[in-house]
Design brief:
It is built from five helices and no strands. By secondary structure, the protein is mostly helical. It has one domain (6-119).
Length: 120
């Protein structure tokens, strides 16, 4: 059974946010994706377990980050800042949010497993 190290997942979330903010300013949306990939790669590297454990931790960073992002965007829409929300994350429906979270989870799992393989 895989034991989740939530400290590493939280660190990955914070690193993902910081890298996303910095690299998105430098390289646009592609920079944001690269920042996310690097953060989940780091999480997989730091887990120091099998590739499966790295993939699970990377996917958790993607899922939790996607849910937090969706909640922030929803709050921005509710308080009347829809234009800002569209600039941050251009999603238009719940289905698109779910698909985006699934994509984040897949990319996070791939990067996490690569990170754990780099460690070995």
């Amino acid at each position: 059974m895989v034991e989740i190290n939530w400290v590493k997942v939280r660190r990955g979330l914070i690193l993902s946010l910081v890298l996303w903010l910095i690299l998105r300013e430098v390289a646009g949306d592609v920079g944001g994706w690269i920042g996310f990939f690097l953060a989940t790669l780091y999480v997989g590297y730091k887990v120091d377990e099998s590739y499966k454990n790295g993939a699970i931790h990377g996917a958790l960073v993607g899922i939790v980050g996607g849910i937090i992002g969706a909640l922030i965007i929803a709050i921005l829409y509710i308080i009347g800042l829809g234009d800002l929300a569209k600039q941050l994350w251009p999603v238009t429906s719940i289905i698109v949010v779910i698909v985006a979270i699934i994509i984040y989870a897949i990319i996070g799992a791939i990067a996490g497993s690569i990170g754990s393989k780099i460690k070995k």
